[in-house]
Design goal:
Number of helices: 5
Strand order of the largest sheet: 5-6-7-3-8
CATH class: Alpha Beta
Shape: globular
CATH superfamily: P-loop containing nucleotide triphosphate hydrolases
Number of domains: 1
Strand content: 25-35%
Radius of gyration: 17 Å
CATH architecture: 3-Layer(aba) Sandwich
CATH topology: Rossmann fold
Distance between the termini: 35 Å
Number of strands: 8
Structural class: alpha/beta
Length: about 200
């Protein structure tokens, strides 16, 4: 059991989101605490990714509020998703230097390179989808942040890198809040709590 004293980092108050006239979810009330891992689950199209985007500040809810328990919020969020764009004209070495200028990593550059096992001088556009996905995950895992948001983390990963994801996500700083959006139970089986977004359709 986690011995770190928990703090409420995110509170959702009646959060609702719609696209056009279609409500994706309505009146979500939830609290997310530091040092805990949460899963957001539901059928395809139920709003899992949409909720993570709301938490990350990528989109805003139509109704309700998202409250954070600290300031400078977006400097303390790490986010990974298969649809997230990378600067594909850069090499990994160039991306690493750029990233270091805006966010702090919690491992050395060499340790990061050892983790991702990618060619540093190769342009990211020439990586496979699986290579890009593990790079996105590594940037989220190893960037200093209080909140780690992972959407469909094992998408396009082969068995080896899926095992790497499962090992690494369970070894993150125990003070971090981790929220995983998925409908694959193996991706979140270790989580402390599960939020079924499908319950908030009406």
């Amino acid at each position: 059991m986690n011995s770190v004293q928990s703090q409420t980092l995110i509170t959702l108050n009646g959060v609702s989101k719609k696209f056009g006239n279609n409500w994706i979810f309505k009146n979500v009330n939830a609290q997310f605490e530091s040092g805990k891992k949460y899963a957001v689950v539901g059928a395809n199209g139920s709003g899992k990714s949409t909720l993570l985007k709301v938490l990350a500040g990528i989109i805003t809810p139509n109704q309700g509020t998202v409250q954070f328990g600290f300031s400078d919020v977006f400097q303390h969020i790490s986010f990974s998703a298969p649809y997230m764009d990378l600067p594909e004209e850069l090499t990994l070495n160039e991306l690493f230097r750029f990233h270091e200028n805006i966010r702090k990593l919690n491992i050395s550059r060499q340790a990061f390179m050892d983790e991702v096992q990618l060619e540093g001088d190769k342009e990211i556009r020439n990586y496979s989808s699986g290579m890009k996905q593990r790079l996105k995950l590594a940037l989220a895992f190893f960037t200093e942040s209080r909140i780690l948001l992972l959407d469909e983390p094992s998408a396009t990963l082969d068995e080896h890198w899926n095992n790497w994801y499962l090992k690494t996500v369970q070894q993150v700083n125990p003070e971090r809040l981790v929220i995983i959006s998925s409908n694959i139970s193996a991706e979140y089986a270790f989580c402390d709590s599960v939020l079924d977004i499908g319950r908030f359709k009406n």
